[in-house]
Amino acid sequence: MYLQTVTSKNSVCYYVAQSFRKEDGKHSTRVYETLGTPQEIMAKHNVTDVLAWCKNYVDELNKREKQKKKELNRTLTVSLNEGTDKGKESNVFNAGYLILEKMYYALGMGNICDEIQESRPHVAYSLDNVLKLMLFGRIIAPSSKLELATGVQKLFIENGGVELQHIYRGMDLLNSQSDTIHDRLYYYSGKMMDRNIHRLYYDCTNFYCEIEKEDDAVAGKSEEWHKEHKLRKYGHSKENRPNPIVQMGLFMDGDGMPLGFCINPGNTNEQTTMKPLERKIIKELLNF
Questions:
Q1: Widest distance between CA atoms in the chain
Q2: I need a surface site. Which of 10, 106, 108, 137 has the fewest CB within 10 A?
């Protein structure tokens, strides 16, 4: 990847460009990320030397690319000892997650977590380990967050040292970086498969919550809590349950591969949820 500068009559805009090989074997370039104008970069990242910041940012992206290639080619060696005392704890471990881990790193999830964590230097836990535990645990042994940290994690060959508090804090951090994750996942998944972006599909579903009241009606909570909890609302449940629900919308390409999603309160009209996400996908992901 390299820095690209586009100069017009009245402004300058910086981009991160990337070289790639097309299906016919010819080389071409595409925009990996739009950094913005000097004024936008100075305001967003609190820097004075815009050009130097852009060059350092591109260097960091290239370092992550090299690190990702190393992770994809790593070798895990397991030593077996038949004389090990079995004791009370199990000596049987689940290695099935290693297959999922290869896909995880191929999709750039490790790089995404590193990028997010670098912007939050105060975070003391490994966001990468938290996300892997939640994803692999959900597929291999679906369970509660507490069981993931205290039980499922111990069955993996590699123990990431994830605590329950790390899972809750990691979920808040991932939620705050949703746009970055969308953008990066689209880029990395595009390297694994061809995207059929000539046709888009959109559908909504909803999830019920094991509560009887909407968030606004929950008593005994602070004003700050109510500001952050506005999703669980009464709406038309697909399971006809009388519980508050949360709505989720998903965009897919012509082959049914996910492009992006949105989360809305359960009482939101489905038709109004598509347009904001559609504009975002077309503008930022598809570069139309």
A1: 76
A2: 10
Please choose, from the candidates 7, 6, 22, the residue with its C-alpha nearest in 3D space to the C-alpha of residue 194: 22
Instruction: Let me know the angle formed at the C-alpha of 88 by 85 and 94, rounded to the nearest 5 degrees.
Output: 85
Domain boundaries along the sequence of the chain: 2-64, 97-189, 198-285
**Mode of pairing for the β-strands spanning 258-265 and 2-7:** unpaired
Distance CA 209, CA 221 (A): 18
Question: Each residue of 154-173: pLDDT tens digit?
Answer: 888 888 899 999 999 999 99
Single out the residue of 37, 31, 38 nearest to residue 17, CA to CA: 31
| Residue environment code for 209-234, b if the CB has 16+ CB neighbours within 10 A, otherwise e | beeeebbeeeeeeeeeeeeeeebbbe
Q: What single-letter amino acid sits at 224?
A: E
Angle at 237 between CA 231 and CA 241, to 5 degrees: 105
| Angstrom distance (rounded) from CA 267 to CA 11 | 43
Task: Tally the C-alpha atoms within 13 A of residue 230's C-alpha that lie toward its C-beta.
Answer: 7
Q: Per-residue pLDDT tens for 56-112?
A: 888 888 888 887 777 666 676 766 666 655 555 556 777 888 889 888 988 889 989
pTM of this structure: 0.64
Q: How many residues can be counted in the chain?
A: 288
